[in-house]
Write a structure and sequence with these properties.
three-stranded antiparallel beta sheet, single chain, 7 strands, GH81_C, glucan endo-1,3-beta-D-glucosidase activity, mainly alpha, 7 helices, two-stranded antiparallel sheet
Length: about 220
């Protein structure tokens, strides 16, 4: 974590003054839009940051003396993905979480004829879970409550629209047989992934990472 919070990793984060966010340096060179999974173009930040936020929470729980060293860095990731405050002028409010739809959207600045999408609900849940754990470990009731609220809403939405039991009453029966929607766009559902159409890809990406929240 010392390497990350001091910016000594190869693709350290930079603050982007155009869109007010944290982006990987990997995509700043010409024709490198897709580097780091498009991170520099705001693709999948809630997926990416969830791993670091949850790891930070575990470190904070095991070694509270390290919290002051990493607190600003970890909470900058939170502010970038889903800043809850209208008073924070450095980041927009809730960049990824859509309170009306009840879940997050991927795809940053990339154009898409079918709108934004999400294909890895498990990584979204990993972000919300990590946020709740970070709040718990650092004794921030505001961040813990925010993580718990987003987690609860997303859980209900995902079990309705993304991961479907046989008795699902919402989705078309042709979708329900697949059990997962695949890439869930604003305008369509595509039983596929961005990296291949194998069933193990389509289902597997809804399963990783496997953490204590997965059972929920």
């Amino acid at each position: 974590f010392d390497v990350l919070i001091t910016g000594k990793n190869a693709n350290a984060l930079r603050y982007d003054t155009t869109w007010s966010g944290l982006i990987s340096a990997a995509g700043l060179a010409p024709q490198q839009e897709l580097a780091d999974f498009g991170n520099s173009y705001y693709n999948d930040h809630h997926y990416h940051w969830g791993y670091f936020i949850q790891t930070g929470a575990l470190i904070a729980h095991l070694d509270p003396s390290y919290i002051p060293k990493m607190k600003n860095w970890v909470e900058s990731l939170i502010r970038d993905a889903n800043n809850p405050s209208t008073q924070d002028k450095s980041f927009p409010q809730f960049r990824y979480f859509d309170w009306y739809s009840g879940h997050s959207w991927s795809q940053g600045l990339f154009e898409s004829a079918d709108g934004k999408d999400q294909e890895s609900t498990s990584e979204e849940i990993n972000y919300h879970y990590g946020l709740a754990l970070w709040g718990l470990a650092t004794k921030s009731s505001t961040l813990e409550s925010l993580g718990r609220l987003m987690l609860t809403i997303a859980k209900r939405t995902i079990q309705t629209y993304f991961l479907m039991d046989s008795d699902n009453k919402i989705m078309p029966k042709e979708f329900i047989a697949n059990k997962v929607t695949g890439i869930f766009f604003e305008n369509k559902a595509d039983y596929a992934t961005w990296f291949g159409a194998n069933p193990e890809f389509i289902h597997g990406i809804q399963m990783i990472p496997s953490t204590p929240i997965t059972e929920e």
